[in-house]
């Protein structure tokens, strides 16, 4: 049996920021979950569909683990990532770190975890592990999944070994802070402008503001993509609102990040971005409600309405990100106490 002492195990809203919070606090860095998400330039959008998929997917954040890499680089943290095809080596990597008194982040497929309520394969799930005994692993997951939880070592091994979309090869990682890490406030502008640049100039039409516009054009056809709209449409809406997104497809988290930034920095561009993302968050929840209504009623009308809202959202988020991108040209000053 081995347990890391003094782990601050708060279950957040999103899996990766929850795990990062555990690892950061153990290094003496206590950030709010929205600040963690924003400093990691976590916001994005993807309209994901292919012939192999039964139904389209709307994603609202960067790829799994990109947020972790971004945050570590921005705060000057040492990010040690270990991957292997060997289950034995994978366990040794994790156990050695925990035995040394350091919590470990794990990327895995949540389907296999004993405590997980929604039995859906998702290979980009992230948890923090802080202890183990002969039979169980002690983890920190989101508040919705129970916060401080346990799962059998067998189920953990299955989750880590899973292969499929977004999975990694038994990925584990730790964070170590330098002696004098940069102030998070000093990294706000680079984090925001990097996120805005990626959103405004995506490499393909499925991403960023172009992806939202594409979703608006195609969502009206979703009722023809399924044999069971009562199942698939509400499920799509549920993923947007409650599957670790913090609500409104991560827009609530980014809104709160910008609000926190506005308390630290005095900038009209920042206030504009916050105002627009506050409005966008409400509209994303409206889109989810319309998708649910379409599934429950069997009518295509709500999907057409959702498409119109998505067109508004593409314009609104493009305007917000353009304002935020100007932070680099006119650096804000510290807000008054």
TrEMBL record:
A Pfam family matched by this chain, by name?
Answer: DUF4872
Q: Which organism is it from?
A: Allostreptomyces psammosilenae
- DUF4872 domain: which residues? 155-324
- InterPro entries in the cross-refs: BtrH_N, DUF4872
- All copies of domain Butirosin biosynthesis protein H N-terminal, residue ranges: 14-142
The protein in question is named DUF4872 domain-containing protein
């Amino acid at each position: 049996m081995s347990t890391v002492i003094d782990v601050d195990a708060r279950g957040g809203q999103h899996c990766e920021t929850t795990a990062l919070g555990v690892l950061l606090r153990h290094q003496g860095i206590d950030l709010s979950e929205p600040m963690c998400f924003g400093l990691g330039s976590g916001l994005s959008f993807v309209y994901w569909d292919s012939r192999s998929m039964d139904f389209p997917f709307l994603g609202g954040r960067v790829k799994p683990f990109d947020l972790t890499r971004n945050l570590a680089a921005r705060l000057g943290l040492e990010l040690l990532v270990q991957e292997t095809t060997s289950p034995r080596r994978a366990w040794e990597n994790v156990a050695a770190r925990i035995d040394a008194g350091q919590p470990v982040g794990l990327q895995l497929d949540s389907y296999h975890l004993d405590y997980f309520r929604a039995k859906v394969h998702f290979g980009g799930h992230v948890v923090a592990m802080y202890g183990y005994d002969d039979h169980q692993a002690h983890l920190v997951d989101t508040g919705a999944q129970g916060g401080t939880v346990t799962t059998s070592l067998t189920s953990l091994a299955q989750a880590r070994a899973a292969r499929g979309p977004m999975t990694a090869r038994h990925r584990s990682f730790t964070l170590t802070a330098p002696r004098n890490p940069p102030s998070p406030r000093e990294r706000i502008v680079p984090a925001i402008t990097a996120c805005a640049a990626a959103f405004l100039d995506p490499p393909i039409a499925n991403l960023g503001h172009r992806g939202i516009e594409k979703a608006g054009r195609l969502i009206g056809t979703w009722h023809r993509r399924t044999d069971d709209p009562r199942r698939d449409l509400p499920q799509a809406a549920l993923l947007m609102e409650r599957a670790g997104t913090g609500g409104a497809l991560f827009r609530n988290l980014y809104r709160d990040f910008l609000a926190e930034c506005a308390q630290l920095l005095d900038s009209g561009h920042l206030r504009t971005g916050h105002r627009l993302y506050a409005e966008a968050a409400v509209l994303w929840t409206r889109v989810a409600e319309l998708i649910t209504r379409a599934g429950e009623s069997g009518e295509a009308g709500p999907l057409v309405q959702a498409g119109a809202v998505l067109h508004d959202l593409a314009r609104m988020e493009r305007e917000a990100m353009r304002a935020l991108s100007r932070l680099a040209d006119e650096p804000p000053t510290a807000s008054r106490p």
